[in-house]
Amino acid sequence: MFDSIRKLIKSFIYPLYEWRLVRSLDFSKTPHHVGVILDGNRRWAKSNPTNNDPHGHKAGASKIIEFLGWCDDAQVRVVTLWLLSTDNFKRSQEEIDELLTIIGNTVDELAATGRWNIKAVGALDLLPPWLAEKLSSLKPIRKDGVEVNVAISYGGRREIVDAVKSYLSEQESAGDSIKDAKDRLTTKDISKFLYTAGQPDPELLIRTSGEQRLGGFLLWQSALSEFYFCEAYWPDFRRVDFLRALRSYSVRQRRFGS
């Protein structure tokens, strides 16, 4: 009885609260690039034992299209979603196989909407051929569409190593020695070979589930990012939680390391 009353009260309060949040936001200060660590799926599944998903991955995947709609409304231009880390491969093969299937289906669903430009970022060579080929074949479908990076088989350290290797390969192809390449190497050279090359660095990084660490997410790109940690598990992440993150970002005085 009490739970029913509480839900009824929330159904009236939250729309009003969301409206007030939107009214208070200055969308001219919206971050151009938002990165999200979609954390807490497995803990959500444990706290919701009656659901049909033992790991919570399907529930987490079903939240993505809804979240991207919120980003559209907030005029965010680039979104990076961390779906699978290189460390996740340490899990059981059964869970990994299930997760990869869900990711493949999710990518298909995102592409089928025709609303966003989907780009895979990560070490695709670690993935099974069927998924690596699917991700490699993704093409931009809109000139003005929001760019959505799906970080799959992604690790921040691996990305930097791959960037350095790509830089050295380019220099070698140009006939330069390792010494010459080393002497000329700059941070701009590394940035040119990152998975997100050509995109702005993220101004705001969000992690759900209450964990207050990045775990290597966008390790290079996040040097000047603002962080927002949300207690909600990813499947429970609401529009009001996203608006709170944007409000928190909008009132911060960014000093860019100075």
TrEMBL record:
Keywords carried by this UniProt record: Magnesium, Metal-binding, Transferase
GO molecular function terms listed in the Swiss-Prot or TrEMBL record: ditrans,polycis-polyprenyl diphosphate synthase [(2E,6E)-farnesyl diphosphate specific] activity; magnesium ion binding; Z-farnesyl diphosphate synthase activity
Enzyme class (EC, first level): transferase
EC number: 2.5.1.-
Cofactor: Mg(2+)
Residues the record lists as binding substrate: G40, N41, R42, R43, W44, H57, S85, T86, D87, F89, R91, R207
Biological processes, Gene Ontology terms: polyprenol biosynthetic process
Textual note on the cofactor: Binds 2 magnesium ions per subunit.
Signal peptide stretch: none
Recorded GO CC terms: plasma membrane
Complexes and interactors: Homodimer.
Function statement: Catalyzes the condensation of isopentenyl diphosphate (IPP) with allylic pyrophosphates generating different type of terpenoids.
Family: Belongs to the UPP synthase family. Z-FPP synthase subfamily.
Protein name per Swiss-Prot or TrEMBL: Isoprenyl transferase
